[in-house]
Write a structure and sequence with these properties.
Rossmann fold; 39% helix; binds zinc ion; 367 residues; alpha/beta; 2 domains; elongated; 6-stranded parallel beta sheet; binds pyrazine-2-carboxylic acid
Amino acid sequence: MADVRNVEALQGRQSLQFVENCVKSSASSSREKCEECFSLYDVDSDGYLSRDEFLNLCKDVFVKCNEDEQSLTTLVDHMLKLLDTDQDGRLSKEEFKICWCYWLKQVLEPVSALVIVDVQNDFLEGSLSLSQCPAGQCGLPVIPVINNMLDNVQFDVVVYSKDWHPKDHISFLENVNIRPLHPSSKVKSEEAKPFDTVVFDTSPLTEQVLWPAHCIQGSWGAELHKNLKVVDNGYVVNKGTSPHVDSYSAFWDNNKLSQTELVQLLSKLRVTDVYVCGLAYDICVGFTARHAIDHGFRTVLVEDACRGVDLENIEKTRFELRKKGAVVVQSDQVGDMVDGKLRAAELGVQAAVNVNVALKLLKTGRV
Ligand code: VGL
Ligand code: ZN
């Protein structure tokens, strides 16, 4: 064992290659490999990975994806806290075994889904064209960016979401008269304009932004744009199908009462990482990414493959998602991330959160 436990191996990428090969090697030898890896980083051989020894491992594993990322040490301390079950500030061999099987595996061998949100005619060239919205952004340039990823990145799963509304949908300005408004609604139905917010007298009350009628089930406006590449084994998820509740996210409706089939689909396919792109950045893309994080997916927003409605809200969405643990990247970084070569420490934190939650559930006998 002495030969692998040398300080030189900890510098440069050699040790990482060793760890990578070990995690990917067959399960039968995995136990031994795990011990070897532990020894490699347990430089003082005291039988624990101290905080600094764990930091060395993380320095080998993680790469900065974004200039304004939090410092690695902050993220490493956070990960250690989540993985250090007995909270003694270091990782025992037993704790490391869990890291090896669950945490490092998610980090080095992610299972990745691209979720392409609402790249539909109405948002591009139809009744709710983004170019007519306050930010004045045209949505069309996202199409070649998404197609390029579909051609060149080995996603395990591809999902297309579609805004898919019935004619009497609650979000349509044209329908504001068919449901009573609550007295607290500042905007009254006779004066309502596109993008106004009203309050419908439902229980519970429904705050709703009014949009021009869009993405009506079966209409041209609801079709995916003809230039968007549709892969053979892709999945389609419809959302906003109930007349009475809007659904910006491809997971939950806006009241978080019901869900589409998306989370079940991704879980069944053992997806760990969700890449979100499409339209509109600050509405449906943002809500989908937020819910992906809530579900424990390591979540990446592919920024150059998104266009939005309102500049201030785009900025807010970006800030909030990053605060919640998502990583915001450009599409040219995605290939290496999906291949497990470009590893963001933020996503390591989400993997550690998942391990932490799973261990707690196991302990309380809830799984
Ligand atoms: C969307 C407004 C209304 C979207 C959907 O896809 O971002 N925006 N419905
Ligand atoms: Zn809609």
